[in-house]
Amino acid sequence: MTMKQPRGRQEPRRMGNAAMVVTMLVSLCVLTYIKARYYSNPFPKPEEELEVVEVDEDYDSTRYKLSGPIGEEDLDPSRPTCYNTSKRSERCAAVGDIRVDGNHSKIYINPLSREWKTKPYARLHDPVAMDDVREFTLVPFGGGGGSPNHTTVVPPLCTRNHSVPGFLFSSGGFAGNLYHDYADVLVPLFASTHHFGGEVHFLLADIKDWWADKFKPLFRQLSRYDVIDVNNDQEVHCFPRIVIGSTFHRAMGIDASRTPGGETVADFKRLLRCAFRLERAVASRSGAPRRKDRPRLLIISRKSSRRFVNERAMARAAAAARFDVRIAEPDNHTDMPNFARLVNSADVMMGVHGAGLTNMVFLPSRAVLVQVVPFGGLEWLTRVTFKDPARDMDVTYMEYNVSLEESSLRDLYPEDHFYLKHPYDVHKKGWDAIKRVYLDKQNVRLNLTRFTRTLEQARDLLPSP
Ligand SMILES: *[C@@H]1O[C@H](CO)[C@@H](O)[C@H](O)[C@H]1NC(C)=O
Ligand SMILES: *[C@@H]1O[C@H](CO)[C@@H](O)[C@H](O)[C@H]1NC(C)=O
Ligand SMILES: *[C@@H]1O[C@H](CO)[C@@H](O)[C@H](O)[C@H]1NC(C)=O
Ligand SMILES: *[C@@H]1O[C@H](CO)[C@@H](O)[C@H](O)[C@H]1NC(C)=O
Ligand SMILES: *[C@@H]1O[C@H](CO)[C@@H](O)[C@H](O)[C@H]1NC(C)=O
Ligand SMILES: *[C@@H]1O[C@H](CO)[C@@H](O)[C@H](O)[C@H]1NC(C)=O
Ligand SMILES: *[C@@H]1O[C@H](CO)[C@@H](O)[C@H](O)[C@H]1NC(C)=O
Predict the structure, then answer these.
(1) Is a pLDDT exceeding 80 seen at residue 230?
(2) pLDDT over threshold 50, residue 337
């Protein structure tokens, strides 16, 4: 079954790139600023709103008539060059004489039976995202594909010859928003290319320098070669084989039976740990070694909407409950490697629903993620974005449903207001209404008794050392 959720326009989003993490060492009441390097940011963008739509499994093997893993079957002549691997992703694969003229968005291929057009970003069902993705044309030449008129096409001469396969993908669309970075680009990329064992050349379209810099350590783990910025490259890159577009399984998830090497999200996390030199593989009830038997709580802070109004009081309560507390807000200036290490040092991570929770990819195994669900019947949204993915990530999931008493909406509307009484009817009006009423205008003031009890439960869920 496929259930569409209402969605709306992409909002201009706030986050960009670069580097500053503010952590607050509450137990000592000392503020520590971890400053790291700033990236230049020609395209200040995202990191705020999740643009989420899907509720059900995107991958439906009967519908897409695919059996077995996708990745090593490119030589099968019965397979069309391009095909959909899910309703979100189109994949094109070819072997032969392949010439990529990135500057003109053309890929000349011999043999090829017909011309194809494709956009290599795993959000095919979403026209708003796809608008921001460059389209590539696969052009037959040389007549090898059997269509006689293709012999008239004159392909450009190779200026760079490569002996390994090329893999073309895009960081357009909603990339730049951390959730979409992982859900639409990085997890699918891992599932589609890990089996190459580094012997693959990445061609990245719609590149933003700051974005590519941010994930460079990860690309390094997947490919031994420098990423080619295909939009701004005057070379004609030639390959013996090419794959255009990643295979998509499910949001931030991987179905091991569909990956060529049986890879899972656990393997993806392991790779991230290597990429960002994260030390901790497993969380612990007594925290990291030498931490005085205190698990670390990382509170993901937000400044604009869905803010913890009583954040400092929360931190004090958590410290009193014998947690080592850190508060951090990933924002425009967040330095990935530093932030990744901070998240990896946590045993419990808590935050109000938002892209910042995507940082759970860096949590050690069996850490606890507490998603604070704002008032407004948002379970479907919180489920697909973080609850379901947490399972794949080997992160223990808890949620904290904000009651009306804890919500700032209570101050905005009279007690018997439609928005407070009938959230599901508001949902029927569509994504814009949900976003406006429950996501953009709501802050939360957690009840410290409930909060402390939640932390105790989280502690009990952590593995004992
Ligand atoms: C972050 O980005 C937003 C929008 O791009 C901008 O308005 C804001 O000033 C930036 N914040 C900082 C601290 O640079
Ligand atoms: C993949 O799905 C899209 C949207 O449903 C469709 O337009 C496209 O033609 C499909 N691609 C292939 C190769 O079948
Ligand atoms: C090709 O590259 C030139 C020089 O970098 C650039 O000005 C032009 O816009 C590019 N063309 C396309 C179609 O991207
Ligand atoms: C090549 O053949 C196809 C059909 O076989 C036709 O649609 C197309 O227009 C032809 N292209 C050229 C350049 O003649
Ligand atoms: C690439 O390989 C082709 C075919 O072997 C050869 O003709 C061409 O000169 C090579 N180009 C470069 C830049 O090495
Ligand atoms: C939060 O609310 C949802 C939907 O009402 C419910 O399924 C879930 O069990 C609640 N979680 C907690 C921890 O109360
Ligand atoms: C906080 O929660 C506790 C337990 O659910 C409840 O007894 C108490 O009344 C709440 N406090 C406030 C101020 O709402």
Answers:
(1) yes
(2) yes
